[in-house]
Amino acid sequence: MPFRHTAAHLALLSAMTMTTTLAASAAHAATPTAYVTSETAGVGVIDLDQMTLTRTIPLGKDGPRGLSLNADGTRLYVANKGTADLSEIDTSTGTVLRRAKIGKNPEFVRVFKGYAYVTYEPGEDGGPPGPPGQPPKEEKDDENSPPAEIAIVDLKSLKVIHSVKSGHETEGVEFSSDGREVLVTNEGDDTVSVYRVGTGKPVRTVKLDKGSRPRGIKASPDGKQYVVTLENTNKFIVLDARDLKIVKTVDTKTGPYGVAFGPHGKRLFVAAARDKTLQVFDGKTYEHVSDVPVGQRCWHFSFTPDGAKLLLACGRSNAVYVLDAENYQTIKQIEGLPLAWGIVTYPSASGSIESK
């Protein structure tokens, strides 16, 4: 005899489904998590309560690099060099749901107001540096090669709605405090370019010292300044957000890249990757405070959501270094992440890729 759903049965089923969904969401929200791209293994998932690698989402053949989360942490977006696309991952299951074709050598990703901004480089081969002991590959700063582009992806359809020509070797991505502009650093032609959010309409381009190779960029907590790291001249500069004029230049150790303010804005952190050092500066005066020894090729880093620890993705150490955020001492190394590239957390925290 066929079973007939009564109104009471349907109401009960609906309530059970809603309860299950809410429980799953609550469980997700209750577990602070870090996601780390490994260029040869995939995306590592770190339980931040236990500080352990719980699983690796197998995207190694795709060559994952840049990554960014949506607001509620249910979707992770990853730029893949090997497949020249952006993958959308369900963070609860680790399943790739959709892919958006981007173009050659996609690298940096930022999710903002319903869009993903993905930098890619049609004229560059990209990829990690050579093995230790070997000279780095010669940089190809050919002004006649195609410039980098920024793909603007609508996250509802996961379709590229605009592709904006930028400078050569576009790297870091940041947003203005009013949410109207997106700023990018261009390594190959030593510029910072500014575009309108959503449309990609060019606003202005700022030229920096030739050969300086700007890489990381981060807005100050009050939105009044931007800090830009210059990899080849071993400095960072501070730009006034109103006119993008340089107001301060600060020396760093060798090869500065990732940059971020701490959770309360009191400190600025710079990853001097070639010197295996995380540098600490005063977040207001930019005076040097401390140098912290870390692993090899630590490009990107993130605080934990509670601000108690700092995690660095150290590519040539094949690990994530975990530091105490108060005394900067190394607590542990989380192994099993070959060529670790980028790192973000949920809930969102201050870091060189995402901003809280």
Automatic annotation (TrEMBL):
Record carries keyword DNA-binding: no
Domain of life according to the entry: Bacteria
Pfam families tied to this protein: Cytochrom_D1
Signal peptide segment: 1-29
Organism: Caballeronia choica
The name this protein goes by in its record: YVTN beta-propeller repeat-containing protein
Chain residue ranges for the region called Disordered: 120-145
SMART domains, alphabetized: WD40
InterPro entries xref list: Host-pathogen_enzymatic-act, N2O_reductase_N, WD40/YVTN_repeat-like_dom_sf, WD40_rpt
